[in-house]
Amino acid sequence: MQYRKSIEVTTLYNEYKYYIHHDRDIVKLKQKVAAIIREKSFVPMMNDLKWLQLQHAVSSLSFAPAYQFRCITDTEQTEFLYLKTIPNHEGDWSNYYHEGMPPLFSIEWIKVRPQLRKHQGRLIADAIMDETHAFVAILNNLSIPYTEDNHIFTIFGYKSI
């Protein structure tokens, strides 16, 4: 089973690397991100492989948790209101070339709420699906550093020192 997971992550990694090396706009973005990282003295906390392992592991959950992210290149302050309540939709954990997450090397942080509100009707309370324990297990198994506040997990791609 572990061998199969390794092959799947390797395939995902090779696909990702192909796209980030063969798209001129992405190559320019990577240079811009590198310059910002140097300028702001950011320290990398994650790398592409760790992000891909996380994406792959999230697919084992009963739903793909909603998330909010900030990219290194974002110039406006990011409002963090979106995950304050339990989301009623899932997140798209695919890569940017499948219209999912941004290029992984550009993520400053991602906030994840591994809970999902399912509407059951007007007279019945919404069902709450909770994958918090499974999500924590994934983060710990992959040795991904995170902070947690009220079921919202923050994973840093980069941190300032």
Write structural notes for this entry.
The chain has one domain (2-160). The protein is α+β, with helices and mostly antiparallel strands. The strands form three sheets. A four-stranded antiparallel β-sheet has the order 2-3-7-6, with no helix packed on it. It is globular and about 55 Å long. Helices cover 37% and strands 22% of the residues.
List the helices and strands and how they pair.
Layout: H1 2-22, H2 24-40, E1 42-44, H3 48-58, E2 66-71, E3 107-113, E4 115-118, E5 127-130, H4 132-141, E6 147-149, E7 152-156, E8 158-160
Antiparallel strand pairs: 1-8, 2-3, 3-7, 4-5, 6-7
Helix pairs in contact: 1-3
Assign the structural class, choosing from mainly alpha, mainly beta, alpha/beta, alpha+beta, or little secondary structure: alpha+beta
Q: Gap between N and C termini, in Å?
A: 39 Å
Poorly predicted residue ranges = none
Radius of gyration: 17 Å
Strand order of the largest sheet: 2-3-7-6
